[in-house]
Amino acid sequence: MKKIIFICLLFIAFNSLDVSGQEYNDKWASEIDAFDKLNGDTPAQGGILFTGSSSIRFWKDPAKDFNNPKILNRGFGGSQIIDLIEKFDQVILQYHPKKIVIYSGDNDVQEGKSAEIVFGDFCTLYGMIKAKLPETEVYYIAIKPSLNRWAKVLEMKKTNTMINEFLNTKSNGYYVDIFSPMIGTEGKPCKKWFVEDGLHMTKEGYELWTKILTPYLKD
Predict the structure, then answer these.
(1) What average pLDDT does the chain have?
(2) Residue 138: half-sphere exposure toward Cβ, Cα within 13 Å
(3) Backbone CA torsion sign across 48, 92, 6, 80
(4) What is the DSSP letter of 177?
(5) Is the dihedral of CA 31, 83, 72, 183 positive or negative?
(6) Distances from the Cα of 51 to the Cαs of 42, 85, 118, 183, in angstroms?
(7) Could you tell me the strand order of the sheet in which 99-103 lies?
(8) Would the pLDDT of 122 be above 90?
(9) pTM for this one?
(10) What is the topology classification, in CATH, of domain 42-217?
(11) Based on the number of CB atoms within 10 Å of its own CB, is 181 exposed (0-12), middle (13-18) or buried (19 or more)?
(12) How many CB atoms lie within 10 A of CB 76?
């Protein structure tokens, strides 16, 4: 545990340099612009923010699934935790959410980042949230075990473990385990959770996530 916290502190210190001042290829401009259009003149604040990569983006209507009109979906497909850091003001801060539900890290590992790097990026993001939104609760959805990316499962499990242990030390940080319930009797993910690509989820997959997340999102 001490090693994990030390790694986290190192990444926070390194990345606390002016992130916004670094060169960054703004490949998310069109998606961020789409969020701005959805927001209108005044972004809704004080609700529950869902953000992260395609597993969030393709969640059609979480507000309906959780029967909560204060849920906003601001996921952008293909993104990594570093993208949430770079787009922090536009994707997170402007909404001043009461709760943030994050699914990110899946693409990071797939692109070759180690568990330590992904964990460090998460620590940076968490530190930014706590610095700007100290009362906001953070819910991290575990990296899912997908059929398409099963070759990376050990690194994903390691990442999940590190983030889980870190959030266990926080009073308003929560690790949401969707990994274990998605594993079938043969020790691999159940096919019913996934569409044909073996990566993105079916309606049944989102129903499972909704069931798991519901106790966390109750007021």
Answers:
(1) 90
(2) 28
(3) positive
(4) -
(5) positive
(6) 19, 12, 16, 24
(7) 71-75, 48-52, 99-103, 137-141, 173-176
(8) yes
(9) 0.88
(10) Rossmann fold (3.40.50)
(11) middle
(12) 22
